[in-house]
Amino acid sequence: MGVNRILPKRIILVRHGESQGNLDTAAYTTTPDNRIPLTPAGIGQARGAGEEIRRIVTEGRAAGEEGDDWGVYFYVSPYVRTRSTLSEIGRSFRQEEIDGAREECRIREQDFGNFQVEERMRVIKETRERFGRFFYRFPEGESAADVYDRVTSFMESLWRDIDMNRINRDGVSNFNLVIVSHGLTTRVFLMKWFKWTVEQFEHLNNPTNCEVRVMQLGTGGEYSLLVHHTEEELERWGLSQEMIADQKWRATARRGDWNDDCIWHLSHFFDHFKESDKDKNLEEDQQDNLCLTDGSEIVKC
């Protein structure tokens, strides 16, 4: 007998709260990146994120979503700052409202190598800006492309968990998945999910500490950022008008449909299609400028 798969109503991405490293980069010279703690302000931000997530879930039910039952399931990066963020987020939920939580190493922060020499790291980051943020690999560390590969692997596991209802064991209809991670990891996750290009990634802005980005199912069963967020928010995140148009399409698209108007799915790669379109448009314009006289002769209007 097959398993009745229930998709999460929302996939909510949360960056960790303010860390000591965000406050003072010198912290990395004495403390490994994975052990950097939250600041008191970061703890407050995490509690606020928990209240916001609960409000998003419960306001959705008040707006008429089907089903009285709901739940949340958490994935969290193993770093101290993300685990602490999750702990504070969890204060907004009762035990019976949390379906589970799992540490997931593949959504950890980008490995920046050894931070012990602060001046060296400053020069390396300047080099990254000139080289490009996606492909530049930190010495003894990772590139964003490396993070993309492990996030891709995580997403494959995530789909298996969804297919088998491993993270929604009670089968609730208003099920919410929350991923507590890092800024670059969040951007890479969205890039992979929505099939954005490297060029589009390069223009994305990092989420602020404890910023919540919500992918929500639209009316046709596709996830879109525009079900919960506004176009103005997406512009602030660095999405182009073409990317926003795709999000608008996804808000009502049927699951499995393909957006033929999405330029980076086809015409982004083939310049000669653009030339063909120009010739076609020119031909149509010329046809529009022709008219018939006495039914036997075509002349310019």
3D structure, described in words:
- This protein has 301 residues and is α/β, with parallel strands linked by helices.
- The protein folds into two domains: 10-217, Rossmann fold, CATH 3.40.50.1240; 270-300.
- It is 41% helix and 14% strand.
- The chain contains ten helices and eight strands.
- It has helices at 20-23, 40-62, 80-89, 118-131, 144-163, 183-194, 198-202, 231-236, 241-250, 271-288, and strands spanning 10-15, 70-76, 98-103, 174-181, 212-217, 223-224, 290-293, 297-300.
- A six-stranded mixed sheet has the order 3-2-4-1-5-6.
- β7 (290-293) and β8 (297-300) form a beta hairpin.
- α2 crosses α3 (80-89) and α5 crosses α6 (183-194).
- The longest helix has 23 residues, at 40-62.
- It is globular, with a radius of gyration of 24 Å.
- The N and C termini lie far apart (69 Å).
- The mean pLDDT is 87.
